[in-house]
Amino acid sequence: VPQRVGLGATLSAVAGVLSGLLGVGGGFIQVPLMNVLMRVPVKAAAATSAFMIGVTVVSSTLLYYANGLVNPQVAVPAAFGVFLGSQTGSRLARRVRGRVLSRILIVILLYLATTILLQAFGIQVPGAR
């Protein structure tokens, strides 16, 4: 049973703002938020996050498209790749233990946080813009 639902909803709203503002899915915020603060198992948090990202993406995409900000030459191939990748990822998630998924998420978050921090101080990171 999820805990601290009110806090989770409030922080999810903040994650939604960041997702819309930055054009990111928000899963890197939502999954740890649900897992740590709301005590949702990591696999359920990932699945719930994927559902919420779908809702966020639909609303943001409509607004971006209406404002002429979507480049179909980039969006169509990217959407195809994301569709295939998400199908593969959700199938793999069924076979991987929750603890392993948590560790993978930790490594990714540490890498992203380190990259952003280094860039904020003007340090060039190979492979990052």
- Low-confidence stretches at least 5 residues in length (pLDDT < 50)? none
Strand content: under 5%
Taken together, the total number of domains comes to 1
Q: What integer is the average pLDDT?
A: 85
Largest sheet: none
Shape verdict: globular
Number of helices: 5
Radius of gyration: 16 Å
Quickly give the structural class: mainly alpha
| Gap from first CA to last CA | 41 Å
Give me the strand/helix succession.
HHHHH
Subcellular location: Cell membrane; Membrane
Membrane topology: Multi-pass membrane protein
Transmembrane segments: 12-33, 45-66, 104-123
InterPro entries: TM_pro_TauE-like, TSUP/Inactive_protease-like
Overview of the molecule:
The chain is mainly α. The protein has one domain (5-120). It has helices at 5-22, 27-37, 42-66, 72-95, 98-120. α1 (5-22) runs antiparallel to α2 (27-37) and α2 runs antiparallel to α3. The N and C termini lie far apart (41 Å).
Gist?
With 129 residues, the protein is mainly α.
What layout of secondary structure does this protein have?
Layout lengths: L4 H18 L4 H11 L4 H25 L5 H24 L2 H23 L9
Helix pairs in contact: 1-2, 2-3
